[in-house]
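Sample entry (363 residues):
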Amino acid sequence: MSNESTSADVVVIGAGLSGLVAATLVLEQGRSVVLLEASDRPGGRVRSLHDADTGTVLGDLGPTWVWPPYQPVVIEWLQRLGLHTFPQFETGRAALDYGPEAPVQFQTVPGQHGIARIAGGPQALIDALVAKLPAGILSTGVAVTAIRAGDEEIVVETSGTTCRADQVIVAAPLRVAEHAINWSPALGDDLFRALKETPTWMSVHAKALIVYPSAFWRQAGLSGRIASRAGPLAEAHDVSGQDGTPAALFGFVGWPHEMRAVNKDRLETDIIAQLVRCLGEAAAQPTHIHVEDWAANDLICTPRDRAEAMKHPDTGPDVLRQTHMQGRVAFAAAETSKISPGLIEGALAAGMRAAGQVLGSQP
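Predicted structure, serialized as tokens:
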């Protein structure tokens, strides 16, 4: 809609998990909200592969796990949204893969205490939060190009719209917010530096999801877990549904993003060859295979992310959790959280904190 002008009490930029949480909490307090998402779908780094015929979630292309014994914020939101978890399947032996020229070794390896999956995947969080939004709140395919603070309001500009608001919550990845948005007045040096230096968790990774007619590895006494020095998957795990269906594995692609781009046409073939080597001939016949390369997504991954070695974000400086532009702007990306930065719990906590700041219930 060209040159359209709108207004709201609060504009939330980014409809990933943190942005959806923030928008939900602000709406519950009777404030008007405009929620803008640059992608063609809500969810951000949470994304699932769906069966084209039934719509069933086949597996996660973004984050997968939560740790309920250690993540009370996750428990709070699961209860609030009527969702539940089940343990990550780790029964059986893991495959240790040293490459095509060496035999695969099988042994039992320790699991992670408390590791669990959300029934329906993290996508269930997104779907439940989107379902709570009133009609017309969420706009997708709308990239913010500028944020300008005036004396009495803050103006959010996109390619075709201008939205005037009292306050703004920026729930986009921090480096994307710094890289893609024109800020006026310019951001302070400390904030600018913090946005630029905070990596976006998993942004340079690629994740492969491989779906099968059945979880044949379980019948063979295998957990579906693979650790590899050869690749292309550096590790793999069973991500089948709670009752074993749909049957699926996922793996983190160990090739760096430049190698993935050059060898895109052979990546899936090489993944299947590795799975056959580790799990047997039944692995040769998947019903679906999908590789989600987050490094190729400019709404998630910036040139600076691609130029650096991937590392888990540390707890960022306090400036990321403060308000800016005379208290009108708060940041809510998962990496701003003091707890579990970059993870699902971090996204939930960051959205809660930013909502509290614009509502005046949190400094």
